[in-house]
Amino acid sequence: MKLKLKCDFCGKDLFRYQSQVKRFNFCCRGCASKFNSKKYNPEGYTYRSFEKNSKRFSKMNKELNKFRMTTETRNKLRAAHLNTGKTSSYEKTFGVHTHRVVAEWALGRKLKPGEVVHHIDGDRRNNNPENILVFASQKEHAKLHAELAGRKEVVPHEVHTT
Asked: Does 153 score more than 90 pLDDT?
């Protein structure tokens, strides 16, 4: 037997089985959306932060799938996904742009915040250490591109590590 309820937003009558009754009950998705909107429901609106979900799910995944994401498995997944997209975007290694990993390896340290990695030949997929420059800031990197905009040939510059 269905129970007669009122929509928590608009007050319209609705009918639900006992198992379908929740903390908040709505006649439609529009009412549910407006109920959770600061614009339409300023008194009842509460901000819900989802910032911690990523860490929580990562922790839960590690607990439930202890042996799932081994290095071997990650390498297989990476190989399966590599170059399957429609664009020639930056290649990634375990979620980090490979050119940044190579630059850190070449420098022997982690990149500092604000440091920018540049490909000398302009090929985003060429992550050869000799093809990579590290600039201390985006400003220095933009200066190089401004210099090169007036030239037709690309002239390699020294690596800046300041």
From this structure: no
